[in-house]
């Protein structure tokens, strides 16, 4: 498998897709499922409009871009909850890849990576009905296979809250012949919701898969939450290749209970990322998660480049 990122080049990606669609573009998303928008042309256009500022940012700064598919909820359990058949789900995953390719074409020759997003089987914040690595690989195999068949450059497991599911996605990606990225979320203490440390999680996935993930990320947590996890020295820190932080300092439980969007302070978020740079020499991908938009990603990229 070919590693899709050019060495020594910074890539940006987008921010909080679902929170931006809901709070900035005024859309309703059942179960946070952005893939439903691909059922019709209006939804396709709303997603294209969402990605446009990030394409502009990459072009203005001459950066690469990782273009995500809108498929974080596009797995069998969530699709069944929303009333989609297996066939319809595969079709919508394919449409998401097509849209990501359209977005990537707007970079006018700058490096573009189409990233097939795989979300957790259950809640992104709470570990419920945990699977074994083998069960997770079997569960996610269908979505990963469709994304790989339709031409993504890599597959990213986003907001993994326990190791075994991350291992399963990595195994499914290896079977489909596509590079994998595993992104963990952490609580305010810098640990996964299971209580495991971030460095233990990275090392466990690498040990279980023969270091098959292309790199790891941290997402859906504020830098003040995961900065303390980086105090653990060792080669595992070089395996962190991307950051997608939340705008808010609130905990996952507080975010779940909040009805209002907390978009934090973009400048502060950028400065906090800059403070992490010396401890994370492997980071090439910068974006955002809940509550972030192009303002935050611009501030993060500019701070990192200084």
Automatic annotation (TrEMBL):
Binding site for Zn(2+): 220, 289-290
Organismal lineage: Bacteria, Bacillati, Actinomycetota, Actinomycetes, Propionibacteriales
SUPFAM superfamilies reported for this sequence: Homocysteine S-methyltransferase
Domain Hcy-binding: 1-304
Cofactor: Zn(2+)
Listed Pfam families: S-methyl_trans
Top-level taxon: Bacteria
InterPro entries per record: HCY_dom, HCY_dom_sf
Alphabetically ordered keywords of this record: Metal-binding, Methyltransferase, Transferase, Zinc
Protein name: Homocysteine S-methyltransferase family protein
Record organism: Nocardioides bigeumensis
Bilayer-spanning residue ranges: none
């Amino acid at each position: 498998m070919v590693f899709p990122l050019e060495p020594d080049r910074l890539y940006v990606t987008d921010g909080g897709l679902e929170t931006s669609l809901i709070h900035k573009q005024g859309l309703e998303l059942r179960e946070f499922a952005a893939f439903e928008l691909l059922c019709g042309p209006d939804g396709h256009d709303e997603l294209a409009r969402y990605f446009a500022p990030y394409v502009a940012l990459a072009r203005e700064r001459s950066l690469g871009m990782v273009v995500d598919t809108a498929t974080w909820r596009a797995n069998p359990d969530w699709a069944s909850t929303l009333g989609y058949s297996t066939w319809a789900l595969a079709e919508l995953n394919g449409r998401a890849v097509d849209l990501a390719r359209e977005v990537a074409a707007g970079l006018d020759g700058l490096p573009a990576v189409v990233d097939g997003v795989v979300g957790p089987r259950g809640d992104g914040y709470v570990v419920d009905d945990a699977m074994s690595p083998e069960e997770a690989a079997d569960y996610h195999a269908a979505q990963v296979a469709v994304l790989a068949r339709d031409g993504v450059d890599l597959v990213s497991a986003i907001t993994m809250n326990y190791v075994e599911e991350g291992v399963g996605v990595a195994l499914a990606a290896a079977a489909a012949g596509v590079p994998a990225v595993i992104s963990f979320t952490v609580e305010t203490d810098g640990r996964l919701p299971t209580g495991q440390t971030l460095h233990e999680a990275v090392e466990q996935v690498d040990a279980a898969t023969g270091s098959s993930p292309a790199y790891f990320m941290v997402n859906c947590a504020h830098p003040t939450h995961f900065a303390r996890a980086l105090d653990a020295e060792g080669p595992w820190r070089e395996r962190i290749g991307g950051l997608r932080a939340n705008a808010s300092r609130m905990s996952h439980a507080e975010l779940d209970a909040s009805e209002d969007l907390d978009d934090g302070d973009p400048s502060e978020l950028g400065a906090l990322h800059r403070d992490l740079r010396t401890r994370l020499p492997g980071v090439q991908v910068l974006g955002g998660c809940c509550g972030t938009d192009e303002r935050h990603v611009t501030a993060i990229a500019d701070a990192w480049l200084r």
